[in-house]
Amino acid sequence: MGEPDGLLAIGGDLSVERLTEAYRHSIFPWYSEGDPILWWSPPERFIIKPEDIHISHSMKKFFKKHDVRFELNRDFSDTIHNCRMIHQPQGEWITDDMERAYIALYKAGFATGVEAFFDGELAGGLYGVNIGRCFFGESMFTVKENGSKAALILLAQYLNERDYIMIDCQFHTDHLESMGGITVSRSKYLELLNRGIYS
Q1: DSSP codes of every residue in the chain
Q2: Quick check: pTM over 0.70?
Q3: Cα–Cα distances in angstroms (integers) from residue 80 to residues 1, 3, 4, 7, 94, in the given order
Q4: Which one, of 155, 70, 139, 152, lies nearest residue 99 by Cα?
Q5: 37: nearest Cα among 55, 54, 22
Q6: Is residue 135 a contact partner of residue 166, using CB atoms and an 8 Å limit?
Q7: For residue range 166-199, what is the model confidence (pLDDT) as tens digits?
Q8: Chain centroid, CA 29 distance in Å
């Protein structure tokens, strides 16, 4: 299925229809400004099961010390733009076209922005695609220490209450592994995907 690194196809467009169909079949776009659209479906995926989110001792203390809350879709355009502008170099792949495409997904009801606030001030956030009981994380940003971490924890708790199957993180990072992330094979990922979307 595609190249060994997971590159599946080149070209196409970022329409709402194409993007939602791609995510339903374990495919996502990832490319740099000026390049053709690259579509990926890696042989292994990194996910977090919402019920398995790990909250470190230090984060538990942080939550007790501060007034921490989160909001969904307060301003999706602002959230994705913060991911693009604040969290470099990850933001390098959020091109103008990608930003417009995911705002269109949000307007169509398939994308969600999450923000964490500490003591009333914006601390960080993330956005992703939301289909069925699967959340496909795309990018995060932090403006205060622990900002994106808190946003992810609160999102996982919110999704767990709604019986979500997984948060797709796409690729492994040590940071996400420390928060409960695991690597799964493509076949296992597809099984989870089918449960989350079609059952």
Answers
A1: ---TTSEEEE-----HHHHHHHHHTT-EE---TTSPPEEE--SEEEEE-GGG----HHHHHHHHHS-EEEEESS-HHHHHHHHHHHSTTGGGG--HHHHHHHHHHHHTT-EEEEEEEETTEEEEEEEEEEETTEEEEEEEEESSTTHHHHHHHHHHHHHHHTT--EEEEES--HHHHHTT-EEEEHHHHHHHHHHHHH-
A2: yes
A3: 31, 29, 30, 24, 9
A4: 139
A5: 22
A6: yes
A7: 999 998 999 999 999 999 999 999 999 999 998 8
A8: 13
Tokens of 128: 């992703």
In sequence order, the 6+-apart residues with CB closer than 8 A to the CB of 104 are 15, 16
